[in-house]
Amino acid sequence: MSDFLQYTIFGIMLGAGYAIAATGLVVTYTTSGVFNFAQGAVGMVAAFCYWELVSAHHVPVLLSLLIILVIGAAISGALVERVLMRRLHGASSERPVMVTLGLMVILTGVATIVWSPTTERQVGNMVSGQFRLAGINIQYQEVLIIGVALAVAVALRALFYSTRTGYALRAVVDDPELLAMSGVSPNRMSQYGWILGFMMAALAGVLLAPTQTTGISIEAFTLLVVNGYAAAIVGRLKNIRVTFVAAIVIGLAENYVINYVLPHVPQNLVPDITYALPMVFLFGALVTLPSVRLRAVGRLTTMRAPRVAGGRESLVAGAVFFVVAVAAALVFANTLVKGTTLLDLGGLVMTLGIAGLSLVLLTGYSGQVSLCQFSFMGIGAFVMGKIAGGGSLLGLLAATGVCAAVGALIALPTIRLRDLYLALATFAFADAVAQGFFPDSHVYGSGGVSIGRIVIPGINFGSDSAEFLMVTAFFVLSALLVLAIRRSLFGRRLVALNDSPAAYATVGLNIGFTKVAVFAIAAGMAGLAGALYGTVQGVVGTTDFDIFPGIIFVLFVTIWSIRTVSGAFLAALTYVVLNQLWPNGVGLFAGVGIILIGRAAGGLLGVDAFHFRLPWVRRPAGSAPSVAAPVAVVGLGETRAAG
Amino acid sequence: MPPDSPAGGGSAALSVSEVAVRFGGVSALNDVTITVEPGTVTGLIGPNGAGKTTLFNVISGLQAPDRGSVHLFDTDVTGMKPHRRARLGLARTFQRLEIFGTLSASENVQVGLESTVKWWEWRHLRRAMPWKRRAASAGSAGQSGTGPSVGVAPEHPGSLAASTCDRLLEGVGLAGLGHEQSSNMSTGLARMVELARALAIGPKLLLLDEPGSGLDEAESKALGDLLAKLAAGGMAVLLVEHDMELVMRICDRIYVLDFGDIIASGTPDTIRHDPMVQAAYLGAAEPESGAAGPPGPDAEGEDR
């Protein structure tokens, strides 16, 4: 019994920490309409700053808190709103998600440089000591966290429902124009939302830091807040009270599972279950949501659509691309870069390019965001290596099929909801797979899985050149496939669904079916990419398909242009090259890049200046787009129409 | 309504019975009952905020009513998803444009034409393969015989059997503009793209939400002629419009909605002389003003 009480108190305390972070998410979302994926990273930075100040430099606790919360978090929150988010008004719906993800990888990237992950950093309790109540020991720190969380919740509720500013804060997302007419600046309200959100993220980070018994870690701490996502979802991203209660319930459930269930399961499954919990909670929360109402919003695409290459021109471009690859294979057959053959690196570019193409299909055409394409790659490589014995064409088929099926399962619970929830579900899935599934000793474990090169009777892919040309052929075929899909009636449907869901439904088309279908196809492509990645690299391990590299890759595709085949290829190239040059800085490049791109829907390839530099990207001629104009490209950028 | 009577043969194309919708404490529709007969143009008029768009959303399935029922050709569709209603022969346009802006005008129509095609069947996939010439003929997918047949003579744009995408575009006055990206088109033209797309699914009942706004006088007249022609072919048309001249000219029957209540219904003549209507609506917005009155955005139908 006393054990149960002890677990309950600790569970409530965990939940209180999640509650602070989750209500912070809700406050930012209600006031700005943006879900801040960087919430966990902000808490992580706050926790490390707290360690730096209190543990390393012995600054008094209260002064440290003042510095972190008021000077650090509040000012950064205001700056982020002013400098990053305000520019995104009118951008496509996935862009704010991408920018907050960019912020997240910047923060984790900087933290990795400043606080070397090899040092252990233990944060002590803010208040020491404990007291006995009803036969159990309760630490003052636990009381402090629960008390602070309650105080924050009560204060927020009072702010939102009893003050004029609170009414304005709640109204800002519903109708900014109406609010502006009543003399309140919607931008100011959004800024308050970001300030509050950052402060609460930092508060949660500082308070939860001492609970990390093995010391605070950048990755684990950044992802700690995923538990808060589920709570925020139960609160429908707008209800503070429900979010708070849900967070407490999740904290309790997590702690009960850890203490009552985990001791009875086989040892090797313990981490799997622990890391799968946030995903289980999140998917459980998704089921509680009511279906979103289709709204006729009168949204107009203001950008020029990227021209889609026709069948013959894409065939020609693909052939040219392959011929160039053959020449490269001949010239660079024996070139080594840091101990790896250049052609193997080229092979990685091609396989990642296929993963990028899956994003063109999914995000570029249909507008849905997936943050777990690397997870599908990992699953595909695993299937390739273990289930089909490695090195066989059957393995490629199996990898594609398994990933398509898994993809359909992930998309199913979210199809009746807004697109943001798919992004959240894929984030939770990527987290669970990277931390729980891949490290399992039956999956990749610590040694990784060897994957042989493909054996087709009569053709030998043993040499690096042959392997490189084979994956290049797969990339070209995938690119042709994606362009063919775009030209097909399915492609028209994807674009139509993205442009106007309401009109899509009222011409008799099934939104849910289309969403699941495209997500499954994209997942299958990523699985194929992963299987091929495995054949190039020979051995794949746990860290190959981590959540952060996966997100960084999505950002690179978006930066170059998520709507074009060229964008997918250039993103893969950038990713592989930067990883060779400065592995720790890849995230910084991606984060800064996405922020600089801002709301330019066409990415770098759509920026006018690039139309002069890249000979294959033709500048749109005049105002009348000519459908018949022959332009030979694998893919094209686009320009933003004025205004 | 005998349930066994053939669609279009005497039974109502649309019957809305005692539908009520509330947004928070505000009542948007109060026990609204209307009927639309095949082969007629029915007008739905009323001041801004009267609930017209909300009623359209209820009929097309974008808004669930709190009370009441909606029948399409004797089928109860009250809880049915929008895409299934469309497959029963319901098409609509939107007051605030809902075009597929990234697509060209003809591609917009194509999506409608192909709405019953199962894309995963090889005969459709094949057409997009790289070795196929670009821009295979637009409407051919819809001619596979699976498209909904309409009680419209083949020469009308609403008929799928004889019409390709080009014919539909020509029918709404967009001949030669098929390749334009639809988001670059003027509001008036974009409205016609929406209309052509709606006609492309071969509707038996067409809901038009202010199709005349943004049109000049000649275009408005052509629109009226087109709607009359569609009705003559057997289609049921429900029209929300502020252009009184257009409404009075082509409607067989008119309902007047005010603050969520139907305050009058009848022939154009009856409505013109109804004192309640004049008080509530026509008195405010000059009835004979000819060109499209200022439409003004309806704020109704927004959930908060």
Structure description:
- The complex is a heterodimer of chains A (643) and B (304).
- Chain A is mostly helical.
- Helices cover 67% and strands 3% of the residues of chain A.
- Chain A has helices at 2-32, 39-56, 61-85, 95-114, 140-162, 164-174, 176-181, 186-208, 218-224, 226-234, 240-261, 270-288, 311-331, 342-365, 373-387, 393-411, 419-437, 464-487, 489-499, 501-506, 511-537, 547-560, 565-581, 586-597, 603-606, 610-613, and strands at 130-133, 136-139, 336-337, 340-341, 449-450, 455-456, 459-460, 539-540.
- In chain A, strands 1-2 form a two-stranded antiparallel ribbon.
- In chain A, α1 runs antiparallel to α8.
- The radius of gyration of chain A is 25 Å and the shape is globular.
- Mean pLDDT of chain A is 85; it is low at 611-615 and 617-643.
- Chain B is α/β, with parallel strands linked by helices and 304 residues long.
- Helices cover 28% and strands 19% of the residues of chain B.
- In chain B, the strands form 2 sheets. In chain B, strands 6-7-8-3-9-10 form a 6-stranded mixed beta sheet, with helices on both faces. A 4-stranded antiparallel beta sheet of chain B has the order 2-1-4-5, covered by helices on one side.
- In chain B, α7 runs parallel beside α8.
- The longest helix of chain B has 16 residues, at 217-232.
- Residues 1-9, 133-163 and 285-304 of chain B have low confidence and may be disordered.
- The interface between A and B is large, with 52 and 63 residues.
Helix content of chain B: 25-40%
- N→C terminal distance of chain B: 38 Å
* Mean model confidence by pLDDT of chain A: 85
Oligomer state of the chains in this structure: heterodimer
**Largest protein interface, residues of each chain:** A-B, 52 and 63 residues
What strand line-up does the widest sheet of chain A have?
1-2
Beta fraction of the residues of chain B? Answer: 15-25%
The rough form of chain B would be described as globular
Structural class of chain B: alpha/beta
